[in-house]
Amino acid sequence: MIPDGRMVLALIGRTPNKDYCIYQLLKKSLQDMLAEEDIYSFDLPLYHPNTSELYAIIEYEASFHIDRLETFHINWDMRDEDEIIKSGESSGKFIVKIVRAAMESLLASHFENTCMDKIFERYVMQATEQLSRTKIDGFNIVVSLTRKYNN
Fold first, then answer.
1. CA–CA separation, 21 vs 136, rounded Å?
2. Is the full-model pTM beyond 0.70?
3. Which terminus of the chain has a smaller tally of CB atoms within 10 A, N or C?
4. CA dist., res. 47 & res. 12, Å (int)
5. Do residues 85 and 103 touch, judged by C-beta distance below 8 A?
6. For residue 34, pLDDT beyond 70
7. 16: pLDDT strictly greater than 80
8. How many whole angstroms separate alpha carbon 122 and alpha carbon 134?
9. Residue 14's closest CA among 102, 108, 149, 138?
10. Contact between residue 137 and residue 22 where contact means Cβ atoms under 8 Å apart
């Protein structure tokens, strides 16, 4: 990237005071359904930084100035109440469909493809139970960066 070039990154992050992530429910579902040695042989390469960590990484790398950093929360089930009632589909099931679309091929390539339906059915139960206690929302970070001049 040329000096003074700009880059905008959009990331899934986590709030500093909340360690909860939708993928923890997937982990719990896998633990409920699979042998321990199978789970430990699987590595999901995801990391969701909080804003302090992101600032520290950018500062440490030292190639960019942070022009602007904004955060926002999103509801994992972005449907309005009328839509939820019409569909008859729980928010837990809707959220799991989103995660399944992104994760199923990765999981199926490591675990047997035959158990995917059972794992995701369990995941729906976990998500629905969690939603009965607390809202599941996402935390996104958008950062605008400018490349520094090399001295």
1. 8
2. yes
3. C
4. 9
5. no
6. yes
7. no
8. 18
9. 138
10. no
Whether 61 shows a pLDDT value over 80: the answer reads: yes
Q: Are 95 and 114 in contact (CB under 8 A)?
A: no
Please, is 113 exposed, middle or buried when counting C-beta atoms within 10 Å of its C-beta (0-12, 13-18, 19+)? exposed
Q: Report yes or no: 71 and 140 within 8 Å, Cβ to Cβ.
A: yes
Instruction: Give me the pLDDT at residue 111, please.
Output: 82
Is the pLDDT at 123 greater than 70? The verdict is yes
Q: For the chain, what percent of residues have pLDDT higher than 70?
A: 85
Query: Which two tokens mark 151?
Result: 């001295």
The model's confidence at residue 87, banded by pLDDT at 50, 70 and 90, is: low
3-class SS at 56?
helix
The answer to whether 119 and 81 are in contact (CB under 8 A) is no
Q: What is d(CA 92, CA 96) in angstroms, rounded to the nearest whole number?
A: 6
Residue type, 49: P
Cα distance between residue 150 and residue 56, in whole Å: 20
Q: Are 73 and 12 in contact (CB under 8 A)?
A: no
- Two tokens, residue 30: 């896998």
* Position 127 confidence tier, pLDDT thresholds 50, 70, 90: confident
